[in-house]
Amino acid sequence: MSNKNIALLLPGISRSAKLCYDSLEKSILNNFNVDIFVHTYSQSNISVDENHSEYENSYNELIELLSPKEIVVEDYFEVREKLRQKLACLHKVTAIHPMRCISSFYKIEKCFELLNNHDIEKYDFFVRARMDILYEDRLNIDNINIGEIYIPKPCNKKTIFENGYYKSYSGDYMEQYVMDHFAVGDYESMMKYCKCYSNLEFLCNQRKIPLHPEWITKQNLLASKLEIKRFKFDYSLHRRPVI
Questions:
Q1: pLDDT digits over 55-84, tens only?
Q2: Is the pTM of this model over 0.85?
Q3: By residue range, what is the domain housing residue 81?
Q4: pLDDT at 36 exceeding the cut of 70
Q5: pLDDT of residue 161
Q6: What phi-psi label fits residue 75: left (phi over 0), alpha (psi between -120 and 50 degrees) or beta?
């Protein structure tokens, strides 16, 4: 086990958290000293029309499963209007599901802000991940440099559907974007990475960048003058289709 201390940020809906937990243990939790920070919704999955939701993982189940250093749980439908107002201020929306995109950036930033309540000096590195990631590699942070953000390389594997779940990978086209599932960096780098929500008006309205999750993620990093490093780290998103 490494003596490195990691703050693991898990923002967003919890989806397949229980199903993916064993892989999280093998990839990260068993290999570093990890504190987990969660900023999630009480709904585990939200449909395209945003009127149907699932409650697969309860607050108590997440606490028992993840033993988070800090956890915040919001009701999506209570913050939805704020997210809609944010979306209404933006130009050139190309995201297939723009509210999901806005919501994702919101939760990422709110999750990072949880660190303000803790001693950040104790952590060597900061990891942003998701609760529905099924890890296929052990995380290696031996070559992480200060002032850079590390993003997994795209994987050529195809999305499959089995046992009621989609198992999806990022494809070749992601070389021109930045997949917004997983990132590793120091505190300053991760703070810039997690600022998409606050920077949306600047990116979409002033720089005329379309609201597209992977494109916004990359352009936010470029605007922040962060060097993007790609590293081999295979994983998939494991999730059930929403109704």
A1: 667 788 899 999 999 999 999 989 999 999
A2: yes
A3: 5-239
A4: yes
A5: 64
A6: beta
End-to-end Cα separation, the chain, in angstroms: 42
pLDDT mean over 12-33: 94
Rg (CA), the chain: 17
Strands of 160-162's sheet in order across: 133-135, 235-239, 165-168, 160-162
What are phi and psi for residue 52, nearest 5 degrees? Answer: -110, 140
Can you give the CATH number for the domain in which 227 is found?
3.90.550.10
Q: How many domains does the chain fold into? A: 1
Q: Which amino acid is at 65?
A: L
**CA angle, residues 208, 209, 214, in degrees to nearest 5:** 175
β-strand pairing of 53-54 with 45-46 = antiparallel
More confident residue, 236 or 126: 126
Q: Cα–Cα distance between 55 and 50 in angstroms, integer?
A: 14
Buried b (16+ CB within 10 A) or exposed e, 141-157: beebeeeebbbbebbee
